[in-house]
Amino acid sequence: MAKKFRIEKDSLGEYQVPDDAWYGIQTARAVENFPISGRGPDTDFIVAHARIKQAAAIANREAGWLEDNKAGAIVDAAVAIVNGKYHEQFVVDRFQAGAGTSHNMNTNEVIANLANVALGGERGHYDPVNPNDHVNMGQSTNDTIPTAIRLAALAKLPRLLSAVTAMAVEYERIAGEEADTVKTGRTHLQDAVPTTVGREFGAYGWILHRCGERLQATREHLCEIGLGGSAAGTGLNTSPGYTDRVAAELASLTGEPIRAAGNLAGQMQSMTDLQELSNAIRQLALEVTRISNDMRLLASGPRTGLGEILLPPVQPGSSIMPGKVNPVMFEMLNQTCYQVLGQDAAISMMVQAGQLELNVMMPALGSALFDAMDWLTNAINIVVEKNLKGLQIDREQCRQFAHASVGLATLLNTSIGYAAAAEVAKESEKSGRPVREIVAERGLLTTDQFDQMVEKAARDGRID
Questions:
Q1: What residues contact residue 451 under an 8 Å CB cut-off, 6+ apart?
Q2: 223 CB neighbour count, 10 Å cutoff
Q3: Structural domains counted in the chain
Q4: Beta bridge partner(s), residue 190
Q5: What are the residue numbers of the active site?
Q6: Share of the chain above pLDDT 70, in %
Q7: Whether 388 and 410 share a structural domain
Q8: pLDDT in tens, 436-445
Q9: What is the pLDDT of residues 126-151, one digit of tens each?
């Protein structure tokens, strides 16, 4: 069956719009103009932008600028979108016209058509509710898009924080269970002084909590919005008191302490708040990829690597080598982190690319930020579930490495001095004999006394 179209008209002339579409002519033009990535807008962004339209309608009704019936129909349509309906009607590619005008009009048109049908009208006939005059009243792409990016980021932030906390908690759980499990420490990838699995894994948990604190600290600035700046931060065509009224309404709708920025023009020009969030995400990605590298190294083997930890197998590791199992979950996490770092680099370039009164790079900037948050959240969560919760420590392997380490000679520093201890280390390295045997042979300590000293040094950090 041939697809049916309706004809709509804008300032450029007439254009075909799919007859069953809730969007209108400007959205249809954008679909044809921007066949770039094949990716539609982020779901949280769709919801955030609809909430802005809802809050604006309420604020304009309270100011007496928007009639009750129109405001009610706009609010109902926006609420439906917030609740998950009509998301398939948001069809503009993520790479689109600068600043996000195409998405803003996509939202305006969908809400206008839904409102008009609810009031007895037809799709494509923008009466009594007009996308620009009523849905977009007192607004501009200039202030709704950056506000929507902030609101969407605020919606995603608790999920990312929850994932980071869950990973930290798992490392702390393992640390608690293995508090007294002695292992060799390694610096420069060489044998170092003895430590414990508890200390090593506890450090992972601690740094992840620190990363969470940095992420949480970005909320304060994200809650400061430029909505009400309208075009170029001037507040043009906004009702009296609109700026504070719409911010208060968004605070009520989102549960976040949303407030108007002290300088609407500045908040429209600058994307630094979003860069601040991206910075915290970058720091998290750097730490997570470092920890992932450690997990892969500690799990290496099973016969010719370190093999100090055992990761739950989740899939066969090779198409040619039978029985091979790879650390695929942490490999995936590494790859995700590297991609997140790439998104941060793109965000940095787009943050500085704003000119004069507006940053026109916002659509791609928002997309990169949303991807970074979602990808890292999903990757961390699945690693926790499929690997960390089932991770096991090979205590015997840890013990053997600990007692075979040349680094144990360091324990002799306080009793025989650094130079003499270095001679013991050299002999151990040259002969392949454990430090404990050389120590016993020289009459410094019995092997049992030396082993006890190793255990105490690893647990307490001193030998008394």
A1: 403, 436
A2: 20
A3: 3
A4: 187
A5: 318
A6: 98
A7: no
A8: 778 778 877 7
A9: 999 999 999 999 999 999 999 999 99
